[in-house]
Amino acid sequence: MEMINDYKPDAGIAYENVSNAPTILLEENFDSEKDFKEQLNQLKERSNNICDLFESMLLELFYIRNPGATKESNESLNHFVSFRAEYLNGADSDLTGSWVLYDNGVMMHLLRPTDQYELRTSCNTGLISNTQQDILSKSNVAIAGLNTGGLCASTLASEGVTSFFLGGVEHTSAYNTHGMSPTIGGLLKNKLQIISRQIWEIDPFISINQGMSQDSDKWISEMFSKDKMPDVVIDTLDDLASKTELRKACCVNNVPLVWAVNSGDGLVQIGVERFDKSSKDIEKYLTTPSISNKNIQSGSNLELSFEKFDNDRLPSRMASSIIMACNNKRAGIPQMAGTLSIAAGAISQVVRNILFKKNIVKSFFVDIESELDPNFKANRLQDKVKTMKILYNHDLLAEEI
Question: Is the per-residue pLDDT at 227 higher than 90?
Answer without folding.
Answer: no
